[in-house]
């Protein structure tokens, strides 16, 4: 018998009752066997009856399955092993799903998302990355544009043409090796804040404050690669959904909720990621830097400098008893800066520093670096409506 003896942990929802059950799934000769841990549910779904929330790919993480044999019932299988084991047995899941995804993303996506919202609220079940994965690109862009728009108030983007050309060149160099087909766009915002963050829809915001503090093009490349790492792992999408809640996210997707939209930029700027997410973004950054032949030591140096600045802040805190309002302003700035949203640690800096070296060339030539540093010499409104319209 060719059955796969391995069984995989999964969560089963019958679509009627609130609770999701722990279960085991096993791939047998002609179908998926599902047995709940409490023994109450035992099902077999023939491979040809299976539907997946998104096409199975070699790098798939998590899969959400349903069957035409059992309407309303879903099985969520976390991890990377199961999708790989399933793909050869149910090859239709690698293409078919792709077709319907392109067919009517708004209608199907909204239905799936609404269904998941109910599931999450009733069962406390939060496979957030799966949901983020479900979002069609057009929604992610919408979410990202809304976030940028909500930050636009009183702020400008830096557009000095020579600097912008240098930035494009660096962005392309890193973006082209992502292997995910994501075409990242970087926006430099004329903002004294010291930060960079990934925005849904493959956009990255970097502030003037960060550019001023950067010592070399390799440092900027390292930060961009780290943010692209967050983008590749869909951390901003996941983070926003976590922050505003699933129902608000659905509302947002459906085109409403001005209040949430207005706060989205702040939410995004404040998103703190877990240590595991930071590690994932660092790992991704190391891959991008290696593949594009840019030394990873820029990122390590950058982290080390941020860490020494943080030390300075800590000392300031002990010394400031007067000047309350100044202190408050500093606090506010700090809740939004790099120290709080991507807290660098000695361990992270060291891990990057110690990673294997490889042949590299500077991220930008000396001339392009000078141009990039001066990118904020010319500014324009953050989201020029006319230009936006023209693009569509
Ligand atoms: Zn980060």
What's the helix and strand layout?
Elements: E1 7-13, E2 21-27, E3 31-36, E4 42-46, E5 50-52, E6 63-67, E7 74-77, H1 81-86, H2 92-103, H3 105-123, H4 128-134, H5 137-151, E8 156-158, H6 161-175, E9 185-189, E10 196-199, E11 203-207, H7 208-213, H8 217-232, H9 235-244, H10 246-253, H11 258-270, H12 275-291, H13 297-319, H14 324-336, H15 338-341, H16 346-354, H17 366-373, E12 379-381, H18 385-391
Parallel strand pairs: 9-11
Antiparallel strand pairs: 1-2, 1-7, 2-3, 3-4, 5-6, 6-7, 8-12, 10-11
Structure, described:
It contains 18 helices and twelve strands. The chain is elongated, with a radius of gyration of 23 Å. Helices cover 53% and strands 15% of the residues. Helix 5 (137-151) crosses helix 11 and helix 6 (161-175) packs across helix 17 (366-373). The N and C termini lie far apart (55 Å). The chain folds into two domains: 7-134, PH-domain like; 138-391, no CATH class. The model is unreliable at 316-325 and 384-392 (pLDDT under 50). With 392 residues, it is of the alpha+beta class. The protein has helices at 81-86, 92-103, 105-123, 128-134, 137-151, 161-175, 208-213, 217-232, 235-244, 246-253, 258-270, 275-291, 297-319, 324-336, 338-341, 346-354, 366-373, 385-391; strands spanning 7-13, 21-27, 31-36, 42-46, 50-52, 63-67, 74-77, 156-158, 185-189, 196-199, 203-207, 379-381. A seven-stranded antiparallel beta sheet has the order 4-3-2-1-7-6-5. A hairpin with a 3-residue loop joins strand 2 (21-27) and strand 3 (31-36). Zinc ion binds at residues 226, 230, 273, 278, 281, 342.
